[in-house]
Design goal:
Blueprint: H1 11-14, H2 27-40, H3 49-61
Helix pairs in contact: 2-3
């Protein structure tokens, strides 16, 4: 699932959160990364810094069989 990059998240918001990179070709990681982008976008109805942090935590904790 491709990640949408149309959402512009302000730099001051991005600095507050770690941004673990999703594993390529992992649909779960891609979905979590998209949720994080939506949660960080102040103009989105899904804006929630807490949800953004939770999505980042889930990306870090998501097993990839390595």
């Amino acid at each position: 699932m491709p990640i949408s990059t149309h959402a512009k998240v302000p730099d001051d918001v991005l600095r507050l959160f770690p941004r673990p990179q999703p594993v390529e070709d992992c649909d779960v990681c891609a979905s979590l990364a998209q949720q994080r982008l939506n949660a960080l976008n102040k103009k989105s109805p899904d804006y929630s810094p807490l949800r953004a942090q939770e999505a980042s935590d889930e990306i870090c904790a998501h097993p990839h069989g390595s």
